[in-house]
Design goal:
single chain, 58 residues, mainly alpha, elongated
Length: 58
């Protein structure tokens, strides 16, 4: 139970760091990696959800 809580907390911090990094990129840089600015939040939320599901499946 504690390991699950710690893993969730780490994943949350990673998501925050990734969002900060992506938000610091210019629109051109985002376009180069295939993202639009509006996709940053929803895209990372989807990745976090998938990551959490795969962690629980193990």
């Amino acid at each position: 139970m504690i390991n699950g809580w710690i893993a969730a907390r780490i994943a949350h911090r990673e998501c925050q760091a990734n969002m900060a990094l992506l938000r610091s990129l210019s629109d051109r840089q985002l376009s180069d990696i295939g993202l639009d600015r509006y996709q940053i939040g929803e895209g990372l939320a989807e990745l976090a959800k998938r990551s959490q599901q795969s962690t629980h499946a193990q």
